[in-house]
Write a sequence for this structure.
């Protein structure tokens, strides 16, 4: 067992907060607004170090996002807004959209993004946020898969992006098989070829689904299928030439998302591929969730929705027959 997964520094949320603090030391314009959920990302460390640049709004997402909009209008401050993704993107969607129309910059921390942890229930499982955020023209969406990638994403959002950013963050310890991957450095508009392969390619993102994809590859190898795995932290930003290069000789494209099939990265990428004539002689299948999520342990929920690597293996083999 990889013991490093138990180190707090390898958790995405802890790495995010540590990086945010280091950026705030250099950047005096960074301010943080929180909806009474600072514990879940250890953001109290930020509050303690920067009390005059921290605002606790309580459980009032719409008010918080409106306040961030007013702060951003100063053109002198860069507000970060934190809440669970399901609450932030649904309750305050109108305010997020209104802020975007002002052409200001706000960075939204979409905590607890995706299917897990699944114990808190459907209200907390954020599986629609990409669909509502991607409809906003000047919104860039990311879902880093590990503690190193999240820091690179944060650097990009603060120093390079000219738009609003939404960073989906997974909660909980990382699966041991995704730590310290050789080819997982963040590059804007590009994915990471975590494992090379031929004919069959799977796009995924986030720590849980990437972990299942890596285990899935080992299962498919037994039937002489060499799965190409691409981790795609850029949810709605794609590079034509990079995709063209990496989809040469690929006949089957699969998506495995931490989101509903409708309106997720798969839909966005498929639209891009069609628009740019990159789908010739290729077939696409989305293996992601298409119903209301179940609650329970990670193992139980993955198995129920046939998103665990053993079920995915059977589903892909049935398609490729």
């Amino acid at each position: 067992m990889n013991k490093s997964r138990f180190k707090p520094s390898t958790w995405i949320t802890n790495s995010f907060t540590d990086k945010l603090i280091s950026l705030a030391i250099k950047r005096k314009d960074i301010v943080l607004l929180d909806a009474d959920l600072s514990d879940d990302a250890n953001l109290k460390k930020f509050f303690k170090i920067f009390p005059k640049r921290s605002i606790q709004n309580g459980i009032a997402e719409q008010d918080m996002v409106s306040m961030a909009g007013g702060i951003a209008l100063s053109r002198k401050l860069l507000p970060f807004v934190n809440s669970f993704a399901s609450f932030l993107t649904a309750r305050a969607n109108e305010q997020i959209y209104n802020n975007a129309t002002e052409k200001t910059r706000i960075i939204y921390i979409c905590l607890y993004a995706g299917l897990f942890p699944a114990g808190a229930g459907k209200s907390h499982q954020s599986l629609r946020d990409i669909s509502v955020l991607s409809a906003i023209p000047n919104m860039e969406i990311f879902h880093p898969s590990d503690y190193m990638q999240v820091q690179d994403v944060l650097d990009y959002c603060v120093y390079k992006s000219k738009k609003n950013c939404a960073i989906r963050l997974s909660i909980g310890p990382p699966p041991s098989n995704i730590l310290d991957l050789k080819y997982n450095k963040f590059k804007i508009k590009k994915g990471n070829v975590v494992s090379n392969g031929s004919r069959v390619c799977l796009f995924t993102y986030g720590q849980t689904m990437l972990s299942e994809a890596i285990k899935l590859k080992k299962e498919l190898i037994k039937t002489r299928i060499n799965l190409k795995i691409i981790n795609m932290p850029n949810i709605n930003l794609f590079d034509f030439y990079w995709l063209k290069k990496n989809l040469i000789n690929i006949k089957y494209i699969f998506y495995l998302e931490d989101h509903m099939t409708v309106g997720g990265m798969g839909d966005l990428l498929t639209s891009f591929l069609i628009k740019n004539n990159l789908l010739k002689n290729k077939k696409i299948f989305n293996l992601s969730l298409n119903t209301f999520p179940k609650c329970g342990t990670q193992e139980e929920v993955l198995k129920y929705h046939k998103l665990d690597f053993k079920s995915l293996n059977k589903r892909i083999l049935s398609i490729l027959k």
